Amino acid sequence: AVQTIVNQITLLTQPPTNARYFLVLDDYDRGSESAAGDAFKQKYFSSLFTLSKKISGFKVAFVVFKTIWSGVLTLTPAFKAFRYTSSRACVVNSSSTVEKCGDPDHTFYWIPGHPSKEAHRIMADYMEEVLTQSH
Q1: Domain edges within the chain
Q2: pLDDT per residue of the chain (135 residues) written in tens, 0 to 9
Q3: 29 DSSP 8-state letter
């Protein structure tokens, strides 16, 4: 899987795109860790580092969302620190919005496993911070 991703990135560095700047997002299992996941990331990092030595001007910013997932879903005061009223989803499933919550702007998920509009705002702010610090 890593080689497939690296091959696609390599393809983007060639004409006609000649891309040199890449933003890689790590959204792996919303913050949990596993030996297989860590091995995948290490192989990915190593492959991108090797690529950076081969391609002039190649730059990668890597955003690890584990920081957000841990802060909102596991640490104290958790979701309340972000002004969420719940770490649960506003809608119980993706089939209907009939039973949606009354305050979707203060829930972390819109439907189970899918961040809400406000959660996406926090993710975007975090990505911007990573990009600012990577220059």
Answers
A1: 1-64, 66-135
A2: 999 999 999 999 999 999 999 999 887 666 677 898 889 999 999 999 999 999 999 999 988 888 888 888 877 777 888 888 888 889 988 888 777 888 888 888 888 888 888 889 889 999 999 889 876
A3: G
DSSP-derived 3-state class of residue 17: coil
Residue type present at position 59: K
- Give the DSSP letter string of 61-130: EEEETHHHHHHHHTSSSGGGGGT-SEEEESSSSTT--TT--S-GGGEEEEETTEE-HHHHHHHHHHHHHH
3-class state of residue 134 by DSSP? coil
Side by side, the strands of the sheet bearing 107-111 are 86-89, 107-111, 114-115
User: Could you tell me how far CA 113 lies from the centroid of its own chain?
Assistant: 13
